[in-house]
Amino acid sequence: MAQEHLKTALDDYNPAESCDEKWRRLMEVKMKLAYAQSLYDFASTSRSVAPGTGRAKRAGKNESASSSSSAQPSIVESAKHSRTLQESVVNKAIEEAKQLLTKLIKDESTRVDCWNNMGRLIYDDCKPAVARMVYDQIVNSFPDNFDLMNNLGFLRILGNEPEKAGTNFKDIISKCPTHVEALSNYGVHLIINKEDFKSAQKVLSQGLAVNQSEPHMWNALAISYLMEGNHDYARECFGQARKNEKYHTGAAWSIRFTIANYLRRQAAMKTSLDEKIKFFQGVKNLLDSVMSYEETSDVHLAIAKLHLSRSAALRAATPAEAKKYANPEDEDSEAQRHMISAIKIDRTNTRAWNELGLSVMRTGNSKKAIDFFKMAVQTDPRRPALWINLGLAYQLHGSHNDARRVLIKALELDKDSIEAMNNLANLHKAKGELDEAKKIYVRCINTLNASAHKTSPRSRELLAQAYNNLALVSIKEGNYQKAMDNLQFAQERYPGMACVRQNIQRLALRLENRMN
């Protein structure tokens, strides 16, 4: 309904002739921006209001998610068509707004609202790094604009620059103690990056003294109490968030999910098992609070991921540390149970099908994994990672031709996918097609060297893997010196890779034996 009103207003927009021309254009841009944003919000939240994706409807006892034969093609196909249609409309509206904003900025570069809206549009277009660069530049030009500084701080949290983000928020609050957005973001920063729950409570209470109807702050305050173990206060704050959320189109709900996922990742980085489990329990309390209000597919999936994280932590611990907690196998079973519940509620939940496929593949059941990954690519055929997972499952099952077919499909969607190239080359190597494997490994290396992120730890790790695999091909060809050169390249790029170190030792021994 909001979209219809905005579109009508935009079509009928005809300001008085006496209006300044730039002002007229700015008003048109703002209306287009509002229209684009409403469409974007509609597309991103449409799954939560689609049939079968909102409040849980209990499935019958015989309903299962064990194979593709039990799927409902009509639901899947209609969801795919709806999502594609919405995204095309949204992208068109966002591009149109971006073009108008660009013209305005060229004509009058000192309009802060134009720059701010441009940054927000770029962020909404799934380009947070580019948006951060835009805000970096404009904050220097307009250092006293607190809204710009706040948006930059938010993007710095997303860009893994927590210290700079905290500085942004503190600077705003010192100059404007009633800036609600900065107080809210600084409170969240203290929770997820500093684990300073007392200070977070103080900051968030300061914000709520300014505006008691802000659900984001009630959410964050509740989370700080949950992480402390103060469940009564947390429950009361969540109730306040839910009470006020209807005025904010459900945005606080997504904030709660974001924080839960972030805290789960933070827990995995704790050093001791006890610290990890304590942190995981805080996340579980948070997700249980969401579940108590509304049982959805995404809540079940978030809980499943939490159990998988607990399982990984228990497996990495010593037997003495792990003995007082549940077995990793029990955590895996709980994770699968929640994944199946997620799919029963929403059979178009791509991530749930994918996670279920990964889960059963880890147990060695490649046949079931193939079925689940097939469902994942059927619900969202445009994601290369899903095709890569399907290809790996086929490869483990011994279906090499099918594996090759779907990996080529992944590369059609993303020609620079290192994982797809690496898996395809491994497939050729396993079949003895060494020239083809070598060609693809070299392509991997060239792609990584040309990447803008080639110095990142993940890129260096992938580069080392490619050189290691290229060395293994050279060993099969009997070219031991070339293999050693590639292994040394791998070790230089990523010194901590155990397989590279072991291959160097084995090859050195083989070369020594040959010389003797």
UniProtKB/TrEMBL annotation:
SUPFAM superfamilies: TPR-like (SSF48452)
Ranges where the record places region Disordered: 47-82
Family annotation (SMART domains): TPR
Keyword set, alphabetical order: Repeat, TPR repeat
TPR repeats: 350-383, 384-417, 464-497
Entries under InterPro entries matching the protein: CellSynth/LPSAsmb/PSIAsmb, TPR-like_helical_dom_sf, TPR_rpt
Pfam families documented for this protein: TPR_19 (PF14559), TPR_8 (PF13181)
Protein name from the UniProt record: UDP-N-acetylglucosamine--peptide N-acetylglucosaminyltransferase SPINDLY
